[in-house]
Amino acid sequence: MAYPKGLEPVFTSKVLIAADRFIFVKGALMNKIIVQVYLPANGKTYDIRLPEDMYVHDAADILGDLFADAAKGLYCKGDVNILCFLDKGESLPQDKTLKELNICNRTKLMFV
Q1: CA-CA distance, 31 to 50, in Å (whole number)?
Q2: 26-48: buried (b, 16+ CB within 10 Å) or exposed (e) per residue?
Q3: Contact indicator for 82, 111 with CB cutoff of 8 Å
Q4: Of these four, 27, 45, 48, 72, which has the most CB atoms within 10 Å of its CB?
Q5: CATH code at 76?
Q6: CB within 8 A of 92, min separation 6: which ones?
Q7: In 10 A of CB 112, how many CB atoms?
Q8: How many whole angstroms separate alpha carbon 27 and alpha carbon 15?
């Protein structure tokens, strides 16, 4: 996946920060939150920065692309990507924004 110059995701051993390209595409400044996303495919948790006004379906789509790169063959992006609350296990509605679901800094999610 090609990212605009200066908006590439940052990978470290524990941290993956991404989704700045949505700010560029929408053309407006947005408040961002940092959520913890657990990826069962590789058993790792990532800190990810996302705009709070991003829809869940958009977040799941970008995370699918990013995790396909980060998991190095342990995860392949599918047609349907689901974000869930890690503690409850309930999937997030695709047509709501992160802010509408009261997702804030340090919220723990799971990506399947």
Answers
A1: 8
A2: eeeebebbebebbbebeebbbeb
A3: yes
A4: 48
A5: 3.10.20.90
A6: 56, 82, 83, 84, 85, 101, 103, 109
A7: 16
A8: 26
How far from 76 is each of 31, 68, 72, 101, CA to CA, in Å?
30, 5, 9, 27
Collapsing DSSP states into helix, strand and coil, what is residue 103? coil
**What is the three-class DSSP state of 22?**
helix
- Domain-embedded: residue 40: yes
pLDDT at 10 over 90: no
- 74-105 pLDDT, tens digit per residue, is 776 777 889 999 999 899 999 999 999 999 99
Return the pLDDT at 100: 96
pTM here is 0.71
Q: State both tokens at 2.
A: 């090609």
Look at residue 52 and tell me if it is in a domain: yes
Residue 3 in domain = no
Angle at 13 between CA 88 and CA 47, to 5 degrees: 35
Domain of 91 in residue numbering reads as: 10-111
In a domain, 29, yes or no: yes
